[in-house]
Request: fold
Amino acid sequence: MGLIKTKGIVIGSANSSDNDKVLTVLTPDLGKISIFYRGAKKAKSNGLNCSEYLAFSDFVLYKSSNDNYSINSAEIIEVFYKLREDIDKLSYATEVAKIVYDVTEENIPASDILQLFLNTLFVISETDKNLDLIFSIFQIRLLAILGFLPQISRCTNCGEPMTEDMDEFYFSIKDDGVKCGPCSKLDKSVIRLNKTTFSALIYALSCDSKKLYSFEIPEESINELKLLTKIYTSQKLDKSYEVLKY
Ligand SMILES: [Zn+2]
Reply:
């Protein structure tokens, strides 16, 4: 029982009555929690508030004796306003949020996932970077946080070191990592990657989180990464994610 301070971002909401809402909020320490917001509808008539989808806020929550949370007070930190003005940006942000929703749980701290999520929303909202590239990098990094770190330094079959000056790279979906040319011929699940795509994959898995979105690659490589992440994500999370196009 008592008051708890936390930051959090709204990743879902449902009406609880005419005036009240239950928000689904991702927090760093409490994981994904439900928060009861009395009077949400009234507050909404005053403009954007903390119950807005993808609004990131400082919350003071009241925790009841039966472990239910409700809002005591809230102050918006960031609403990613530009997402709301651009249907493409909003579609990608929504798909990113869906994945985040699916991989988080109550009482499982999620500060790494929250940081990646906020970083990704910021880049979608505030830059003109290719949205498919952002979506692919997000998935690669998220899967690594979740423990699905592919082997990229050596061929997963024969152990030959993979270096960026090699001519051929293949990613094996079946064996969670790269394969050299000869070994790839025995594996039907491989996806061919060009040098730039392979370098981008290494970078996305190993760079400082603040620099995650600091590179550009040609469209051919973006398409390779897109195919790779689509298949790899659906295999690891048992669900396909596709951005709705308008
Ligand atoms: Zn090999």
